[in-house]
Structure to design on (634 residues):
């Protein structure tokens, strides 16, 4: 029996705590649900009228009354159940337990649905009270605050770890200042009040004025090291005017503007200081401002003014076939390997394929073959790793030492934070395998071994390489704090614009983007997604439950040429899917090519103009097979 009591009592306490979070409050007089150990107390209007103004240097917290009428003079107020976070729930519970332990009576624990302006209250988290709003103005993004405002003690931080730190600080203060002789906790604001910094990086972000604080997001590190952490603050209900005013404030705070860029009605700016880099974006479709901060050692995109080059060759895009037989009648038909040759003779590589020896050999051979007329020392201006799946970055992860004879200037990546990967696995356990997405440190090792810069790219950034402009349209930094439904959602989406012989050719690189990420892109950019050439998302495999998101993106892209990174053994099984069939019905569609077997390749000469541009299609098998390509009559 004693065993059952020990087991069941804590469970009962937890259940009652959860139930109190679901209660709405009403104006006094009222009866409020409390945690075990507290008593139900009727608070009358007369009691409210008798409350004295709060003296910040003589804050007395005590219990009065006897038996069922025993009551603590301060209540605890937390956000309503729709906006409360687990950390705030736990923090309110910790304060409740501490006050109950110290005073022998339980304070009332309420939601902020109804305000109690005449009561002494402890506000925790983002409540609807004006005192919380006032506290925000006195607190940096990397600070936590315990402050006395009117008749309230306000506990606040923009970050959940800050809430935890503030609660620990406050609870310790309560215990330290309890006088057993009088039974009173005596607090002085001068001893505990004000903002305290717990995150130096977040504290360096100038506070955005206007709008509403929405969320903090862990954007992860650049290279796996703590000192290269990147943090994001998200504000909602903003406007272009507030965004412009904030940019002025950033400069007044000691930052220098590096670049600005506009994509559709979305505005972006990058700022630098001696210690930090700030990337600020206004997202028109959600009226959000997203602010990213990282250390100043992060490499910046090359400026357009610095993009001077001499033309030595013609630009082209090559899609390499990757399909191979793993076992008897079992094929690896996925993977992606795109090789772009620039007019200055350098290359851009997108992914590269599996950890499979032939994939390494084939891309090296292609690079040397395509550059043999003008150099013996080929250079890769940028190697883009779109996401951490083995069929995309497996080759470079495992075989990077085989590229030490080729100069690689930089890697472009954006891998999700370990904390976000863990959260995604918990939220969507059926969509993730145990170690999925965890091998990206090998890419960091590759960059270090090859002497390449490692860029953690951000939405709104632009990279200029000779005749190519690369715009970053999507990373997880524009998706969070929504939990990631699948690793493919982390895929980089990039718009690549080539300018050759006075003509522009736009190539849309979608990698393994899911319906969720492409729906976001469509809402954010609309017609700005228009492209001449598109790479099918996720090889034409699943959309991860959002066919409509992929289809709406394809409608906006409306490409003439489709490059399909898939093997022939898989293509017939997926080309008829509704989310793929739409590609063939779009007004601009004229032709498509399937990557095919390892050793196959398709090279598109730029500028791309249907019926005029040369397309070289090499197959180790039968290139006339109906699944390899289709071209409409001119």
């Amino acid at each position: 029996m004693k065993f059952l009591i020990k087991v069941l009592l804590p469970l009962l306490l937890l259940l009652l705590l959860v139930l109190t979070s679901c209660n709405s409050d009403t104006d006094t007089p009222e009866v409020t649900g409390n945690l075990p150990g507290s008593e139900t107390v009727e608070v009358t209007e007369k009691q409210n009228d008798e409350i004295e103004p709060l003296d910040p240097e003589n804050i007395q917290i005590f219990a009065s009354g006897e038996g069922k009428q025993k009551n603590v003079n301060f209540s605890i107020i937390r956000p309503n159940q729709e906006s409360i976070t687990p950390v705030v729930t736990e923090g309110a519970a910790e304060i409740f337990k501490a006050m109950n332990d110290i005073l022998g009576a339980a304070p009332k624990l309420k939601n902020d649905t109804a305000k109690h302006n005449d009561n002494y209250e402890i506000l925790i988290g983002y409540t609807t009270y004006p005192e919380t709003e006032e506290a925000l103005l006195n607190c940096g993004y990397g600070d936590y605050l315990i402050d006395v405002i009117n008749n309230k003690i306000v506990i606040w931080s923009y970050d959940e770890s800050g809430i935890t730190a503030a609660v620990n600080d406050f609870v310790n203060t309560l215990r330290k200042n309890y006088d057993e002789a009088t039974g009173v906790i005596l607090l002085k604001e001068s001893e505990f009040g004000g903002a305290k910094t717990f995150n130096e990086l977040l504290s360096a972000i100038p506070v955005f004025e206007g709008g509403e604080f929405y969320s903090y997001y862990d954007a992860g590190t650049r290279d796996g090291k703590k000192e290269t952490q990147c943090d994001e603050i998200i504000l909602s209900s903003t406007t272009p005017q507030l965004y412009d005013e904030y940019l002025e404030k950033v400069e007044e705070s000691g930052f220098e503007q590096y670049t600005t860029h506009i994509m559709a009605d979305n505005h972006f700016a990058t700022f630098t200081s001696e210690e930090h880099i700030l990337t600020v974006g206004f997202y028109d479709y959600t009226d959000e401002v997203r602010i990213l901060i990282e250390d100043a050692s992060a490499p910046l995109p090359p400026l357009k003014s610095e993009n001077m080059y001499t033309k030595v060759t013609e630009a082209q895009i090559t899609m390499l076939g990757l399909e191979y037989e793993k076992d008897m009648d079992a094929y690896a038909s996925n993977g992606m390997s795109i090789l772009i040759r620039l007019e200055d003779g350098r290359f851009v590589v997108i992914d590269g394929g599996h950890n499979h020896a032939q994939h390494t050999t084939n891309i090296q051979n292609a690079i040397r073959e395509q550059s043999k007329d003008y150099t013996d020392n080929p250079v890769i201006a940028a190697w883009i790793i779109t996401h951490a799946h083995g069929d995309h970055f497996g080759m470079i992860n495992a075989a990077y030492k085989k590229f030490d004879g080729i100069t690689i200037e930089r890697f472009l990546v954006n891998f999700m934070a370990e904390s976000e990967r863990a959260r995604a696995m918990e939220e969507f356990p059926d969509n993730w395998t145990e170690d999925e997405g965890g091998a990206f440190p090998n890419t960091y090792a590759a960059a270090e071994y090859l002497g390449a810069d490692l860029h953690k790219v951000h939405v709104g950034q632009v990279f200029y390489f000779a005749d190519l402009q690369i715009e970053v349209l999507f990373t997880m930094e524009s998706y969070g704090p929504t939990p990631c439904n699948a690793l493919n959602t982390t895929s980089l989406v990039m718009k690549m614009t080539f300018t050759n012989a006075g003509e522009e050719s736009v190539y849309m690189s979608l990698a393994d983007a899911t319906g969720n990420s492409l729906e976001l892109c469509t809402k954010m950019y609309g017609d700005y997604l228009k492209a001449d050439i598109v790479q099918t998302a996720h090889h034409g495999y699943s959309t991860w439950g959002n066919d409509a998101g992929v289809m709406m993106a394809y409608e906006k892209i409306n490409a003439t040429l489709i490059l399909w990174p898939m093997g022939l053994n898989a293509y017939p099984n997926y080309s008829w899917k509704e989310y793929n069939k739409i590609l063939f019905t779009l007004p601009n569609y004229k032709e498509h090519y399937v990557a095919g077997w390892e050793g196959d390749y398709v090279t598109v000469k730029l500028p791309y103009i249907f019926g005029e541009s040369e397309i070289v299609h090499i197959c180790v098998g039968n290139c006339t097979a109906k699944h390899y390509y289709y071209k409409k009559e001119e």
About this structure: Confidence is low (pLDDT under 50) at residues 1-49. The radius of gyration is 29 Å.
